[in-house]
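CHAIN AND CONFORMATION:
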Amino acid sequence: MNKIGVIFDLDGVIVDTAKYHYLAWKKIADALGFEFTEEHNELLKGVSRVRSLEILLDIGNIEISEEKKQEYLVSKNEDYLGFITKMEADEILPGASELLDHLDETGIKYVLGSASKNAPLILKQIGLYDRFAGIVDGNSVSKAKPDPEVFLIGAKKLELEPGQCVVFEDAIAGIEAAKNAKMVSVGIGDENTLKKADYNFNNLTEVPENFFERLMTLN
């Protein structure tokens, strides 16, 4: 790959908003009368809001009307927005800013590929919005990860072939989406959880300085 581009997931890679998702979903579970743990919350990583609610209801073995589902989807988003509109740059995860600086210095373009419909708002809150060459979010796609749509659109924004793209993800569904897109996948987080990734790091501080240069020398 003599030329590459990078696609970053947002939640768990650039910032950690999982805690805010958890608090918002837990409020719904509490209202429905069942326990929702942080371990349960791992199942919601990288999937759409609608699918997340379905998983939540499965956990509680609860059935509700479509009308009630819509009410909960709206209230969950309102609670979540209440949290993220207070976010600041100090919530950028370790290594993220430095990695973006390195990509800028080496002339490697990067875009965002996130399931979150609030991704642009979050990037503006933490001061990174203008750094990305493009943003693909939940408003841009019709199919959720592990479908590769979000990353394939990202490749078009980078003006590269899928095989020239490197995806940074913290979720199983995201790694599968990268694989389905025929892209290089980098798992950020627990190696056992993300064992299908081509490369694994606990966080972005562990990415070697010559990582991208090495990738460009591969066939």
